[in-house]
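step=encode ok
step=design start
structure_in=
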C-alpha cells in the first residue's frame, strides 16, 4: 500500500468517526481502537489504559455529544513502514460555542487488509 493511500485512509476513517462522534455515536471510534488502547485527556486525572475502560467511558457519553458541525483542519499523516501519526486541529460548533482541540493519534500499521493493529489517542489541548 502506498504512503498516500494510507494517509487518505487514516484521514477518512478519522473524519467518519468524528462525524458519528459529533452525533453522539462513539461506535466508529471503538472499532478503530486496539485492545491495549491508550487515552490521554486533560479532562481526566490519569491516563486511560485499555479498550474496556475507554468503552465504558464512551458508553456513558453515548447520545450526549451533539454538535452542529465540525472542521478537521490541517490533517497531516507522518509514517514509517510500521506506524503512522495523524495530527490535526479540530473546531467543533454548537450554537455560538466553539471548541478548539489539537489531536495526535498514532496507528501501528500491518498488512494490506487492515490499516490499524493499535490506535493511540493523545488529546493534547482543549479550549472553549
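sequence_out=
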Amino acid at each position: 500500500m502506498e504512503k498516500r493511500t494510507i494517509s487518505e485512509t487514516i484521514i477518512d476513517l478519522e473524519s467518519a468517526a468524528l462525524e458519528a462522534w459529533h452525533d453522539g455515536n462513539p461506535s466508529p471510534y471503538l472499532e478503530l481502537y486496539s485492545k491495549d488502547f491508550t487515552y490521554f485527556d486533560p479532562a481526566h486525572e490519569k491516563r486511560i489504559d485499555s479498550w474496556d475502560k475507554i468503552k465504558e467511558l464512551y458508553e456513558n457519553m453515548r447520545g450526549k455529544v451533539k454538535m452542529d458541525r465540525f472542521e478537521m483542519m490541517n490533517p497531516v499523516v507522518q509514517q514509517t513502514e510500521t506506524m503512522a501519526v495523524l495530527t490535526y486541529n479540530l473546531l467543533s460548533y454548537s450554537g455560538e460555542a466553539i471548541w478548539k482541540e489539537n489531536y495526535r493519534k498514532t496507528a501501528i500499521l500491518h498488512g494490506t487488509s487492515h490499516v490499524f493493529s493499535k490506535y493511540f489517542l493523545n488529546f493534547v489541548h482543549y479550549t472553549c
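step=design ok
step=annotate ok -> The chain has three helices and six strands.
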